[in-house]
Specification:
CATH architecture: 2-Layer Sandwich
CATH topology: Yope Regulator, Chain: A
Strand content: 15-25%
Shape: globular
Largest sheet: 4 strands, antiparallel
Structural class: alpha+beta
């Protein structure tokens, strides 16, 4: 079991390592990019990555507080499902309504990997191998899909 400070330090060290590992990789559009804090440029639409002592997660999350707008964005993603899955080369889980720890509704499309631990440095290569191709694939997808969402803003 790790103390709060040690857990925080290890998390920060992992994400710093991951960021440095991907730093030379440019976006699909050829720009320098912050892969850890990916900017979709669409309010309330995020690419999220996180890891715990039990699993890793990467996903697209729609957090708009207006139910109708959130549903509209989710429907738009559903229309782009073929393009998304072609970029990812795998199928992800689609959830049109989930709630965060504070009871706020959101939609998500995600992939999980269970049985990994961010606090075990020997598992970091496995975590990096999980996150890297998926965030790059999301970027490839987004370079085409962004303009569809720009029209909805």
């Amino acid at each position: 079991m790790y103390g709060k400070e040690e857990a925080s330090r290890l998390r920060q060290e992992f994400w710093t390592t991951f960021g440095k590992y991907l730093a030379p990789k440019r976006s699909d559009d050829g720009f320098k990019i912050n892969w850890i804090n990916y900017k979709t440029r669409i309010r309330h639409l995020f690419f999220r990555m996180w890891a715990t002592s039990k699993m890793a997660y990467i996903g697209i999350e729609l957090t708009h507080k207006d139910d109708d707008i959130r549903e509209l964005y989710f429907e738009q993603l559903q229309q782009l499902k073929t393009l998304l899955h072609a970029s990812l080369v795998e199928t992800w889980t689609w959830e049109d309504l989930v709630y965060d720890d504070y009871g706020r509704p959101y939609c998500r499309i995600y992939k999980e990997m269970k049985g990994v631990n961010i606090f075990e440095k020997e598992q970091w290569p496995e975590l990096i191998s999980f996150f890297k191709p998926r965030i790059i694939a999301l970027d490839e997808f987004w370079s085409n899909a962004y303009y569809t969402f720009l029209e909805l803003e």
